[in-house]
Design a protein that fits this description.
single chain; about 220 residues; alpha/beta; Uracil-DNA Glycosylase, subunit E; 2 domains; 10 helices; binds uracil
């Protein structure tokens, strides 16, 4: 898979840079190429993610947080990265942000958490709850892209700027872009505020309420 190959190449280039190289003629994939195709079932993909050591986050994680929910969901939520609670539970959005996300799903969309699929851009917890670095995000991205390919959701809600940025390539501020509808290859991408932002800025809940009402009408 091209993304995974690029991620491995990027990882090797960063390693060489750390060792002091500014230029290299080394062709990382000149010799026998490893099998870089990701599995075509979610179970096997999850197993592969659980054994992943492609970036530094694997050194400090307690658990890989792959994602959970309806594996044929029409609606998928993508957050940024697991926090401390998720790192310990192994499930996405199980802390305070998760509690709010669950309320949003149940009270506004009138769905249950098990009706939708919930995952993150990055599957392992960044240290000190930092935002994932571009290398970490790009290294992990093939897992998310494969989850999307296998689940085939109709709508993906990007929770916050990081998820939206890596799914769209657009780094517009979330305040400007939230609630907008983007037709992607095979699904509709809708960015909204991250629940953690709402916990810090409760007045923004009314905008998310509007976004969710619109999502509900698109699902009908
Ligand atoms: N924040 C996220 O982005 N994802 C989680 O799973 C939890 C908190």
């Amino acid at each position: 898979m091209k993304n995974l190959k690029n991620a491995l190449l990027l990882k090797q280039l960063y390693l060489l840079k750390q060792l002091g190289y500014n230029y290299t003629s080394v062709n990382a994939f000149k010799e026998e190429e490893p099998d870089l195709t990701l599995p075509n079932t979610l179970e096997k993909l999850q197993k592969q993610a659980h054994e992943c050591h492609l970036c530094d986050l694997s050194k400090s994680r307690t658990q890989v947080v792959f994602g959970e929910g309806n594996t044929s969901a029409t609606l998928m939520f993508v957050g940024e990265a697991p926090g401390a609670t998720e790192d310990s539970s192994g499930k996405p959005f199980t802390g305070n942000s998760g509690e709010l996300l669950t309320k949003m799903i149940e009270n506004v969309l009138e769905l249950s958490r098990s009706d939708v699929y919930i995952t993150n851009m990055v599957k392992c917890r960044p240290r000190d709850n930092a935002a994932p670095t571009p290398v970490e995000a790009h290294t992990c991205q093939p897992y998310l892209l494969k989850q999307i390919e296998l689940i085939e959701p109709k709508i993906i809600v990007a929770l916050g700027a990081t998820a939206y940025h890596y799914l769209s390539g657009d780094d517009s501020p979330i305040a400007k872009i939230r609630g907008t509808v983007h037709e992607k290859n095979g699904y509709t991408l809708i960015p909204t505020y991250h629940p953690a932002y709402l916990l810090r800025n409760p007045s923004a809940k009314k905008e998310v309420f509007e976004d969710l009402k619109m999502i509900k009408s698109l699902l009908a």
